[in-house]
Write a structure and sequence with these properties.
Layout (H helix, E strand, L loop, with lengths): L9 E2 L7 H15 L2 E4 L5 E4 L4 E4 L4 E6 L12 E4 L8 E3 L4 E3 L4 H7 L10 E3 L12 E2 L5 E2 L9 E2 L15 E5 L10 E3 L29 E2 L8 E5 L9
Parallel strand pairs: 13-14
Antiparallel strand pairs: 1-5, 2-3, 3-4, 4-5, 6-16, 7-16, 8-9, 10-11, 12-15
Length: 242
Amino acid sequence: MNFFKKKNTHNISTANNHNGRRNFMLKSLAALFGASVVAKPDNIFAAKSKTGYIYVKRNGEIIEDYIPQGGSEPFLGSILMAGFGFYPVNYVYANGALLPIMGNEALFILIGTTYGGDGVSNFGLPDLRGRVPMHQGQGSGLSSYVIGQSGGNETVVLTSQQIPSHSHTINVTTSSGTSGSPAGNFIAQNADGIDSYSNTANSTLPSGSLGVTGSNQGHTNLQPFLTINFCIAVQGVFPTGS
C-alpha cells in the first residue's frame, strides 16, 4: 500500500501532544517509510520519505502527502515567474484566490492570512496581478514595508498643492487702442490720454475674468513593464527556517 498517494486524512495516533509520544511517532514513520524530519514548525512536522514528503500534525494526523512531479521539488509557498500561459504542476496562479484551509494546512501554516482570507475556513494567496513585488524592510532613506503590504496607484491626479509655484503672463500693448471690443484683442493705451494704469494693486478681477483649463483627469503612473505569469507552489518541500 502506498500511503503517500492517499489524500484522505489519516489519524495514525490518538495520543496527546507529549514530546515523547510525538518523537516516537516520528521515529516510527522514519522506520516505516525511510523518512527523516526536515522541518519542525510549532504545530506541524515535515518528514521526508523515500518517495516524497509528508506533513504531520502534533497529534499524529497526516494532513498532506506530497510526491514530487515534473522532476522538480519547489519550496512550498515559493513564487515562480513563468513566460508561458499556464501554471506548472504543484503551482497555481498568484492571483489572490482564496484556498480552503482543509487540504492546504501546510501552506496555511506558512503564510496564514497575510494575503487575505478569514483564517477559519480559507486563506488568500498573494495577488501579483498589476503589482510589482518588493522585498520587505526599509531601504536607506526609504519607507518601511512589511510582508503582504500593498500600495501605489496606476493613475494620479495632481492637486494644486503638488503643482510647482508659477505665474502667468498677460499680453498688452503700449499703443493706443484700435477697437472698442475686447473680443480677440489686447489691452491697449487709452487714445484720450486718460491714466488707466497703476504700479500697485489693491483688488482682484472677478473669477469669471479668467478661463479655466484642464479636466482634472489622472495621468498614467506606471514604469515600463512586461507582463508574465507569477505562480505560487501549493505543493512542495516545507522550508526550514534559518
